[in-house]
Amino acid sequence: MSQHFSPADSRRSFLQHAGLGCGSVALTTLLHQQGILAAENNAGNPLVAKPAPAAPRAKAVIWLFQTGSPSQVDTFDYKPELQKRDGTTLAGADPKTGFFTTSGKCLKSPFRWAQHGQSGAWTSEIFPNISQHVDDIAFVYSCYSQSNNHTPAMLEFNSGMIRQGFPSMGSWLTYGLGSENSNLPAYVVMHGTKPRGGDPIWSSGFLPSVYQATSLDPRGEKPIANLQQPAELPDQQQRTLLNALRSVNARHAQERPFDRDLNARLESFELAYRMQTSAPEAFDLTQEPDHIQELYGLNRAESKDYGRQCLIARRLIERGVRFVQIFAACPNTPGGAVSDVPWDAHNDINGNHRACASTVDQPTAALLTDLKQRGLFDETIVIYGGEFGRTSDSQDVGGRDHNPNAFTTWFAGGGFRGGTQYGASDEFGYKSVENRVNAHDIHATVLHQMGIDHTQLTYRFNGRDFRLTDVSGEILHDILV
User: Fold this and answer.
1) d(Cα 196, Cα 328) in Å, to the nearest integer?
2) What's the mean pLDDT in 325-345?
3) What is the domain count for the chain?
């Protein structure tokens, strides 16, 4: 019942009655500050933002996945001994079979090499733009993986396992931290041609499907399929239909409290509805000035598609998207068709790597520059690398076979120590021999930078507590600020 005051009421009487309202306002404010009110309002939303358990150094991740695997000894891991021994048989190699299916004969890098920056990091000539950022980059030369086949190796570096059915790192982070923007997905994957292995690479596995990546091809006018509101369905009518659907589904979910996918399904409908207005704006690059579009190489045929993906990635994390992954799609050879494993240089390392680098070099460097000038670099982790490396000996004269024993991955921003050179492969670049790093170590380190203890982020499935790093994983403190 409302309270009315007359001029005859005393000041003391007025304050006595008004004070009740002030107390309610104060209580509401305190509950909001403590997160209690927000938790109650978002109890049914599995994507609500959660505070990191520890103080995070980074808020978002952009992973530039170089599908097909660049050769470490032709990109960032310079090996003078390999150059000297070109054409000679590698020590310990079977002269008939060599390593895997290769010749056993050393194949030197066809590219010129130079040191750059104050750190003196070596890069090959195919990366003139990335070379200008070596003092912002932490190079890890000693990565290794379990499989020499593309799909299992990509699964491992995304989920920690070489077989399907396990959640990817993007899904784990979304599960652990939620979303900062309720109108956009927390986890976005971009690609042109889908990489070999497809959707299972970025799967949410046994986690509820609400933590699944939103996969899209941003080259067309409609990067997200089936998102546009039908012209014959006005917004008010669509909202009414969704409310009715939500009510029926909510009753269904109440009767099944242990089915976690039901809440995920409810939220997916709501997210899709909200994305109808927010997603087109995020993907609209006409809002970017010409000099930014040119910075990313959108004016060059070779780099425009990858540059578009990198620019969209920056716009997404700027709007609160937690995890963005780009799978490189570039010509397998100069002027050739785009492959599902573009860096897979079995026949011609020279032509293949020049073609791929011309696609990714300028946009990658532009992303680092743009993040810096917008004040996002220190809070965004940028990861660059493939699923394994390539052999030191030749295949089909001028190419290299798969090699899980050594490859290079680099990190920038997000509290990683720029100018760092960590680990080492042997003198031929064939095997990691110093401070060896696997997928679990990388995952543990990224989670640490996001404020999560990798041993504590777990999910019970089939009677067991699973985690991204399984039962291993070491944080790479030496490459962190």
Assistant:
1) 12
2) 90
3) 2
Sign of CA dihedral 153, 157, 161, 166: negative
Task: Give the pLDDT of residue 262.
Answer: 66
Q: Are 344 and 330 in contact (CB under 8 A)?
A: no
pLDDT at site 153: 98
**According to the model, what pLDDT value does residue 228 have?**
66
How far does Cα 340 stand from its chain's mean position? Answer: 18
360 lies in the same domain as 346: yes
Q: pTM here?
A: 0.84
Asked whether 154 and 67 are in contact (CB, 8 A), the reply is yes
Would you say residue 257 lies in a domain? no
Residue 98 lies in a domain: yes
pLDDT in tens, 112-161: 999 999 999 999 999 999 999 999 999 999 999 999 999 999 999 999 99
Domain that includes residue 405, residue range: 53-224+283-479
Is the pLDDT reported for residue 168 higher than 80? yes
β-partners of residue 179 are 48
8 A C-beta contact, residue 57 and residue 415: yes
CA 348 to chain centre: 29
What string of DSSP letters covers 233-261?
Answer: S-HHHHHHHHHHHHHHHHHHHHT-TT-TH
Strand partners, 327: 65, 191
